[in-house]
Amino acid sequence: MPRARLYRFALRTAANPLISLLGYSAGTLLSASLLVEIVFGWPGIGPLFLEAILARDLFVVVDTVLLSSVFLVAGNLLADALLFAADPRIRVK
Questions:
Q1: Cys-Cys link to 57, which of 19, 30, 40, 52 (CB 3.0-4.6 A)?
Q2: Domain extent listing, the chain
């Protein structure tokens, strides 16, 4: 079988789980970065979030949670769009 055919059919099918995994790991990436920033004392959204919780600064806490949820939804939407483009079986009827 020619390599072009192999890449066209096999790679498209094998890419589906990888696309899903990368799209849904956006939330894990954000939560891990929050933890790493807090542990190592790096400036970023993690220490800001922790200080806002301790100071009971509700506006900053809500904004941080909103930003995190937008990041998660954008990652899921990107994964769905890539799956739609990569897999011909996923179509809207």
A1: 52
A2: 3-86
